[in-house]
Specification:
Chain lengths: ~260, ~220
């Protein structure tokens, strides 16, 4: 059996196989089942290239033919978030999951916190709805030219850039014990986006609207401080710091509302 | 899923956990500790002091029973709304998250039982304030009951101490990782101190000093 130790394996590593156990579903409402695959090893391969191999030759480890495994991917460089799945128990991007660094058999599952469409394909619509709900944009449209906005200090821009790296991949929601179908919690990603857009000199002008959105049903109070999100985010976004900072701002907003300010 | 806005009730739940319930648990630990420090005399002085507080019934109602009822019942609902995923994410804080919920449920059961055994018996007139010391002696002399008390007490103190840590985050007082780390250390010291106070008083109540003829009336095994 192939071992995950050799990094500079020769391209002629003929016969070496990579073993996969994949959780599949035929339709959104169908019950899940697993299938095993053995894919010929190639140096530097990642989970996506292995899935492409299965797509090319959809034969299970026991030699039976099966339907090709479905997945989503786009950028192949960990910036779009489309290929997120649970790999060996942890949610992450398949395109940056190198086979050489994974223990085998490699277990692939969909991030089932989200509705599963088919096999490894999930529907992340709730994340985009969350961004709409918190107004994660900067309104600059008007009926006349509003002129240039205030400038942002370079140091602040660099700081904000870190928060802007979020690719809506959904890993933090998958890791969160409070994102489930008994709970309406919006999830960590969009809370951090409120911090980002509220830090922008123009975005700041609509600060209260975003904070108020976090103070609605399923908003920021749904956070229970498990802090799995910050440990899981592939972009290293300081999610728990963002959540605590927004806790502070929503608390201030609450007192402002009470005092009628 | 509840309709309406969960923000305010959730904030109230968080606030009540510290004020007044957190203050109460500290007061309770100190009162009981007087049984260890001052023995029978010390404990009954503390009880007398508490009962001399004006409007003590209304204070108990508004500062203890109603807050604990709201925080406890809503807390059970919050616990129901959470998954426990420490199997996949075995990080310290995720364990604390799970334990916060587990100890909440234990505290709920423990407080209900402890209330029934003590405060409710006083209301029924079965036990007087003066007899509370002997009464506790009777209760904790049974090793099984003592074990249950130790579990209940440690669960409650962990729940409060870790909850205090979460409270500081929930209100935006500790924001960055360093502040949260420092507050976590402080809260764990609080956990150790509070647990020690309660455990010492539990063992003090087992002492001969609290055992009198009155205790014999209770069906309990008195050892040592
Ligand atoms: C009676 C049964 C109780 C239950 C079922 C219960 C349940 C809970 C739960 C589930 C949480 C977690 C909330 C979250 O992190 O999102 C919590 C938080 C908390 N609890 Fe309790 N609790 C109980 C009693 C108490 C008592 C007696 C105290 C005080 C001594 C207390 C103090 C706290 C504190 C300080 C928090 C943190 C609040 C925050 O997250 O901001 N609880 N409780
Ligand atoms: S915050 Fe991180 S884990 Fe969450 S969606 Fe954005 S990139 Fe993914
Ligand atoms: S394909 Fe874009 S993150 Fe993996």
């Amino acid at each position: 059996m192939a071992q995950a130790t050799t990094t500079a394996a020769p391209a002629t590593a003929a016969g070496r196989k990579v073993k996969f156990i994949i959780t599949r579903r035929e339709r959104p409402d169908a019950s899940p089942f697993t299938e095993e695959f053995e894919v010929p090893y190639r140096p530097n391969m990642n989970v996506i290239s292995a899935l492409m191999e299965i797509q090319r030759n959809p034969v299970k480890a026991n030699g039976e033919k099966t339907a090709p495994v479905c997945w989503e991917s786009n950028c192949l460089e960990e910036v779009c978030g489309a290929c997120s799945m649970v790999i060996n128990g942890k949610p992450r991007q398949a395109c940056s999951a190198l086979i050489d660094k994974l223990e085998q058999p490699i277990r692939l599952e969909p991030m089932a916190t989200f509705p599963v469409v088919r096999d490894l394909v999930i529907n992340r619509e709730r994340m985009f709805n969350a961004l709409k709900k918190v107004k994660a944009w900067i309104p600059i449209d008007g009926t006349y030219d509003l002129g240039p906005g205030p400038r942002m200090a370079e140091s602040k821009r660099q700081w904000a850039y870190e928060l802007s790296k979020c690719m809506t991949c959904g890993v933090c929601l998958e890791a969160c014990p409070n994102v489930n179908d008994r709970n309406s919690f919006i999830g960590p990603a969009s809370i951090s986006q409120v911090r980002l857009f509220n830090a922008h000199p123009t975005g700041e002008m609509n600060k209260h609207e975003r904070l108020e959105a976090l103070m609605e049903e399923g908003g920021i109070e749904g956070c229970g401080n498990s802090q799995n999100c910050v440990r899981s985010c592939p972009k290293g976004i300081p999610l728990t710091t963002s959540i605590a900072a927004m806790n502070k701002d929503t608390t201030k907003q609450l007192f402002k509302q009470w005092l009628g300010m | 899923m509840a309709k309406g806005n969960s923000y305010l009730p959730r904030k109230l739940h968080s606030l009540l956990g510290v004020i007044p319930l957190g203050l109460f648990i500290i007061e309770h630990a100190l009162t009981n500790y007087s049984a260890y420090e001052g023995g029978r005399e010390g404990f009954s002085d503390s009880i007398d002091f508490l009962n001399s507080v004006p409007l003590v019934f209304w204070l108990e109602l508004f500062v203890i029973w109603l807050p604990i009822l709201f925080h406890g019942v809503y807390g059970l609902y919050i616990a129901y709304q959470s998954n426990i995923n420490t199997g996949r994410f075995s990080y310290g804080r995720n364990w604390a998250f799970a334990l916060q919920r587990i100890t909440g449920v234990i505290t709920f059961i423990f407080v209900a039982w402890h209330f029934y055994e003590t405060r409710f018996q006083i209301t029924l007139g079965n036990v007087s304030h003066e007899e509370l010391g002997q009464h506790m002696n009777g209760i904790v002399s049974d090793p099984l009951v003592l074990t249950a008390y130790i579990i209940g007490v440690i669960a409650a103190t962990f729940h409060f101490s870790n909850g205090l840590w979460a409270f500081f985050v929930s209100w935006g007082i500790t924001v960055g990782p360093r502040a949260q780390k420092v507050s976590s250390n402080i809260c764990m010291v609080i956990f150790v101190i509070l647990s020690a106070l309660f455990l010492l008083s539990l063992f003090a109540f087992r002492g001969d000093e609290f055992a009198t003829a009155a205790a014999a009336a209770l069906s309990s095994v008195s050892i040592g």
